[in-house]
Amino acid sequence: MSLPKTTKAILVQKTGGPEVLALGEVATPTPSADKVLVKVEWAGVNYVDTYKRAGVYTLPLPLVLGEECSGTIVALPTSESVLNSEQYALRNFHVGDRVACTVSGSFAQYAAASWEKCWKLPVNVETKIGALCVLQGLTALTMIRETYTVKKGDYVLVHAAAGGVGLLLCQACSYLGAHVIGTVSTLAKAQLARENGAEHVIISKEQNVIQEVMKLTDGKGCHVILDGIGKDTWEDDFEMIRRKGTIVTYGNASGVVPPFAPLKLAGKNIKVARPTLGNYIVTAEESAEYFSWLFELIDKGVLKFHVHDEYPFTADGVRKSQTDITSRGTTGKLVIKVE
Ligand code: NDP
């Protein structure tokens, strides 16, 4: 298949507010040893896009924004050792297959994804779902299996329970039999979190979150706290975690968590984890485990995707998606239709 020499992409040339985003042209990725080349149809919006744009994470510039997509394979890896490997054979990729992948630089017409981070979409799963489920779905699943193994009867506190990762955590943890307590900022978000598996929801702008959590857990606190808010909720987490519990701080929506002394953990013998998805799905076996579980839970109807809005593949469209996701006004997933 002949590919265009250049591809349209959303670029960050210098860090700053949403206004620094520009639609530009970059060289179309060429087929390479271990990459699957994808014609992008949908790209998921994630909080991490805003960190990269604003410079919270320092990266070489210019960069193409976006961390996940779904679309169609237009070229396969070229390395014989990849093509002959057992794990690659299990993926059974062909040109024309519909896939979902995590890949940096997905806000573009073409993206080159490591084959290990790419998964063929089951026939009954729409292409769009691929871009809704991958990054946030795999993040939720790796955290509740590996960072802390959620068990039946556990009290699980999910901050930002109506957000992209939050709704999926509510769905998956309630499926595993945990008591899910969600925090959200509005009544409308509380309703959505309840519909998605939260047994109790606390409205953080109206209620005393610590008091409510301690009431709901008989004064003991939660077994695990899943916190993507970061700075604003960090200190309170230490009040709401139970003895021997685990605080999982996995994001910085309100700002980065400050450094702390390990002795802080000794008060209740607690653990703190700061996981990233990228470091859980490094090998083909690891990614296969979580992609399989993700699509099994989608197939069973356990994981469902609530779309806040769809945005056009223009500088204004992507800027708006970034303003929206940081506004605290969104619920579930934001997605870009890539033309
Ligand atoms: P969300 O849809 O959850 O949006 C963020 C939510 O955080 C808001 O809707 C808001 O919910 C809450 N929030 C609380 N305080 C603030 C604040 N001061 N500013 C902005 N938001 C605030 O986003 P995502 O689902 O995309 O991501 C959730 C978190 O997960 C992010 O921190 C992200 O970085 C992290 N993440 C981490 C990954 C990893 O590998 N570690 C991978 C993927 C995501 P409310 O108003 O209801 O409180």
UniProtKB/TrEMBL annotation:
Protein name in UniProt: Probable quinone oxidoreductase
SMART domains given in the database record: PKS_ER (SM00829)
UniProt cross-references to CDD domains, sorted A to Z: QOR2 (cd05286)
SUPFAM superfamilies reported in the protein's UniProt record: GroES-like (SSF50129), NAD(P)-binding Rossmann-fold domains (SSF51735)
Keywords assigned by UniProt, alphabetized: NADP, Oxidoreductase
A Gene Ontology cellular-component term: cytosol
Presence of keyword ATP-binding: no
Any matching Pfam family: ADH_N
Domain Enoyl reductase (ER): 16-336
GO MF terms, alphabetically ordered: mRNA 3'-UTR AU-rich region binding; NADPH binding; quinone reductase (NADPH) activity; zinc ion binding
Record keyword Secreted present: no
